[in-house]
Amino acid sequence: MAILALFSNKGGVGKTTAAVNLAYLAAAGGMRTLLCDLDPQGATTYIYRVEAKLLPDARGLSGTPKQIRQSIKPTGYANLDLLPADLSHRHLERFFREEKHAKQRLQEALAPLAATYELIVLDSPPNIGIVAENIFNAADRLLAPIVPSTLSAESYGQLLAFLDERGYNATSALAFFSMVEKRKTLHQETMKAVRTTYGNVLTTTVPYRSVIERMGQERQPLPVFAARSDAASAYGMLWQEVRRRLFAMG
User: Fold this and answer.
1) What pLDDT score was predicted for residue 57?
2) Is this structure's pTM higher than 0.90?
3) Residue 58 confidence (pLDDT)
4) Among candidates 18, 3, 4, 25, which has minimal Cα distance to 146?
5) pLDDT tens sequence across 143-183
6) Rounded CA gap, 200 and 168, in Å?
7) Closest C-alpha to 177, from 190, 164, 163
8) What CATH number should be reported for the domain holding residue 107?
């Protein structure tokens, strides 16, 4: 089992969009996939039309292995299940802090799922705290979207610095450019500067397209309702790059 975490310490960069589409593409390719919505905003859960409220005997990631399994719901797509953003996930920060091995709790919670899933995708909240550190310990790869702007690039640099300072494997982090408008000189200059500074930026870029914004309206992954769009093609190429990097580690 491999764990891929979509993570950014800056919001509004296309993190959830990538999580939704990459998980779908992995499952569509035959990989048994679980998508975990850890972001309290619950956008991933909304797009997949999954009821966020869990049964009384299911407690999401704050429960026992049995309760975690009871929390998982089908998405209606082959090979793809979802652990929704239940209200209990809004208290994960406090829950993890109160547990022994506070920074390994997520890793321990996901380990029993290895017999069921080949890939777990984490849609992470956009902040660095104890939940984020659990994600850093659990994930085989972090994947960070970068909008080609100075602030977004700076946020990625801060993330890498944090990983390095706290002893996490910064080399496991990957980045890709999101919301790219290639005709903008600033975007071109920023992408060139980031690629020069960091050696872990993927080749694929995801363009800025209105069809991507329609995901919230359609409540479907992009390859389902706009398979012929260049944006869907971009996510397909991105998944191929990520897959090679993710499973090359195994």
Assistant:
1) 47
2) yes
3) 43
4) 18
5) 999 999 999 999 999 999 999 999 998 989 999 999 999 99
6) 16
7) 190
8) 3.40.50.300
Buried b (16+ CB within 10 A) or exposed e, 114-148: eeebbbbbbbbbbebebbbbbbbbbbbbbbbbbbb
- Which residue type occupies 216? G
Q: Where are the alpha helices (DSSP H) in the chain?
A: 15-28, 43-47, 65-71, 92-98, 105-110, 130-138, 150-165, 185-197, 210-213, 215-218, 222-225, 230-247
Domain count, the chain: 1
Distance between CA 114 and CA 106 in Å, rounded?
13
Range of the domain at 66: 2-247
Mean pLDDT, the chain, integer? 90
Both tokens of 12, joined, read 């509004």
Q: Assess contact for 221 and 80: CB atoms under 8 A.
A: no
Phi, psi of 71 (to 5 degrees): -85, -20
Q: What is the pLDDT of residue 65?
A: 76
Beta bridge partners, 74, equal 81
- Per the listing, tokens 């100075």 go with 150
Contact 142, 3 (CB under 8 A): no
Q: What is the pLDDT of residues 91-112, one digit of tens each?
A: 677 777 776 677 888 999 899 9
Q: Encoding tokens for residue 57?
A: 């005997």
